[in-house]
Specification:
Layout lengths: L1 H21 L3 H21 L3 H26 L13 H27 L9 H7 L1 H10 L3 H32 L2
Length: 179
């Protein structure tokens, strides 16, 4: 039965991901993303990782998809408007800074991955029953995986700043048109 559920959840996730990428309507793409994330949460349940499945639903399917839909509605992307993309000095500097950030981040992650000892499978069912899976996930997240956790928070902060900048740009465009 488990193998059938795996292929069902995996197949729907792949089809949803392809539909998300190839759909021209941004709102429909966000809904296909939601479907894909829920199916991935189902795969986590099959792996007996209920905490990660619930976090997947709450964080990604709940918050991120709502944020994406908010940005789509704010920018009017569902109407097919195109945001002009010019090769300006400002955009070139932003691309250069993004490449520098990605290089530094990638180097830090690479050094971190290959400077630590390999992770061994010391967590058994008895340890999980005694300490709890949430506590074990929290301990590993804030000890072994602190650098990727902090990089993810920086990435989310950059996304928030990008939304604010794009929203301000949109507001300026509306004021110039007199809307």
């Amino acid at each position: 039965m488990e193998i059938y559920l795996f292929f069902l959840f995996g197949g729907i996730a792949v089809v949803g991901a392809l539909a998300m990428v190839f759909n021209k309507n941004a709102v429909h793409s966000a809904l296909f993303l939601l479907l894909t994330l829920v199916m991935i949460a189902g795969l986590y349940v099959l792996l007996n990782a209920q905490f990660i499945a619930v976090a997947q639903i709450m964080v990604y399917a709940g918050a991120i998809v709502v944020l994406i839909l908010f940005v789509v509605m704010l920018l009017g992307a569902e109407l097919g408007e195109s945001i002009p993309r010019w090769l300006t000095l400002r955009n070139s500097v932003m691309v250069l800074l993004a490449l520098v950030f990605l290089t530094v981040s990638g180097t830090a992650v690479y050094d971190w991955l290959y400077s630590t000892q390999p992770i061994t499978g010391t967590v058994t069912d008895e340890v999980i029953a005694r300490q709890g899976s949430v506590q074990l996930v929290g301990e590993s997240l804030f000890t072994q995986f602190l650098l990727p956790f902090e990089l993810a928070s920086i990435l989310l902060l950059v996304g928030i700043i990008g939304v604010v900048v794009l929203g301000g740009w949109r507001l300026v465009q509306h004021r110039q048109r007199g809307e």
